[in-house]
Backbone:
DNA sequence: CGTGGATTTGATACGGGTCAATGAGGGTGG
DNA sequence: CCACCCTCATTGACCCGTATCAAATCCACG
């Protein structure tokens, strides 16, 4: 049974938002209510640049809904996508500690709604909520592990299979005839995520398709007939 | 004037060790003394493997003195060095949160002495010392930034110059005729850090030498006649 | 059903990897 | 102090994989 929104609708809406977010998941109700009052909500539409290159951020931002990409642009204009952020992820932590701009640009891949905490508020929260610190450290450590993994995987085929596996897990839905995966990025996007040329990815995908590992359905969907086989190829 | 070591020599020695470490730098004296009692000291000699591949660590380890390398080994035996750790750096945080082994091996490059905090003690410390959490988050965020940077830099020449710049800054001493840099790794090590073949690095170094950017002195030392030029080439 | 952007395919070039041979440094024992 | 050896580094020849450029084809959307 849902409570109707009364006078302070903002509160009830935002409580909803925060409970979805792992960083705040373990907090007690009074703690949550305290935090809610500090949060600034922001919404963006698909394609909007939320944090431009070299911009300073003034706090930490947690994603309430939607998908974002974080990418760097090299001198010669190539885009390297570093992260795909979704519900529950956060960004902006870098500026908090180093007085340096966030080293990547952040752009909405879908309509997004964000929860923003200002630097001083966040700093205060960290002091009072050791569990929050723990959660943040855990998330960063997880993020580190994924980059470490990326760096030490030279073999392109395995990198691609690894990404497919990740997408399969995050965006796949079981169907007759195999897992149906809604890709979060275009071919160009995937290539930029993997740090390779668009054309190379095409060739690799064609190869995978003729090997029967994937079936391409339009530009944004693939089908994986045998997910176990994929998992197995990843060792 | 130095105080002589009395009955509790361990205390005075260890206090010394902790004050050097940025993570603890801002703590008050009583706080320090509390932590000192939790710390386990360990020493290793050059070449020793401190954390084997896939090993679980049981806490967080802070480096008191010496240099370590953290590396992963790919299926085909290639070594990818991920970090060079020195005085004040820490490792083992990954196991604390994920109940997963640290995703890299750690090996002593020189004789090292380490300060180890057990999981539960560290967890307790985090609760009581918000500043500690802040420091850890800052360090992880710094580490992330350096990996992000590495990943988005495809141009090999710039990657090499970047690493040279880093080494110059960390291990260089000004001399007549240019900055003298004591390399922390062999050529093979540097190649494994950059993720390229030993031979390729040799060729690049030869090129840089004939360009006059560096002068090679034996295997572990280089001279940089014009550090400003190097900085300039990095943009 | 047509149009423009995204994707795929083809041809070619280039950079770094690999293998093999040579060369330099740093210890060790005579 | 020198000769030797072993390890590490350099150089050369060649190969392979990915980038690049150009062209054809596909897909999504109006």
Residues:
């Amino acid at each position: 049974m849902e409570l109707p929104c009364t006078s302070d609708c903002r509160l009830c809406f935002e409580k909803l938002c925060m409970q979805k977010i792992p960083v705040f998941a373990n907090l007690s109700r009074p703690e949550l209510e305290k935090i809610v009052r500090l949060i600034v909500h922001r919404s963006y539409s698909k394609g909007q640049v939320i944090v431009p290159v070299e911009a300073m951020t003034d706090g930490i931002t947690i994603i309430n809904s939607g998908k974002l990409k974080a990418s760097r642009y090299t001198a010669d204009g190539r885009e390297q996508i570093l992260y795909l952020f979704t519900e529950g992820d956060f960004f902006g932590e870098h500026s908090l500690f180093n007085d340096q701009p966030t080293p990547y640009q952040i752009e909405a891949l879908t309509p997004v709604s964000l929860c923003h905490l200002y630097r001083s508020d966040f700093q205060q929260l960290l002091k009072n909520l050791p569990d929050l610190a723990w959660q943040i450290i855990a998330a960063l450590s997880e993020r580190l592990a994924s980059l470490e993994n990326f760096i030490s995987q030279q073999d392109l085929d395995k990198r691609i299979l690894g990404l497919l596996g990740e997408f399969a897990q995050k965006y796949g839905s079981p169907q007759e005839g195999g897992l149906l995966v809604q890709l979060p990025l275009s071919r160009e996007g995937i290539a930029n995520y993997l740090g390779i040329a668009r054309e190379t990815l095409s060739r690799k995908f064609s190869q995978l398709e003729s090997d029967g590992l994937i079936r391409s359905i339009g530009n944004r969907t693939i089908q994986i007939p045998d997910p176990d086989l994929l998992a197995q190829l990843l060792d």
Chain B touches chain A through 40 residues (CB under 8 Å). Residues 186-188, 198-199, 201-203, 205-206, 219 of chain B lie near DNA strand D (CB under 10 Å from a C1'). Confidence is low (pLDDT under 50) at residues 1-9 of chain B. The CA atoms of residues 70 and 106 of chain B lie 5 Å apart.
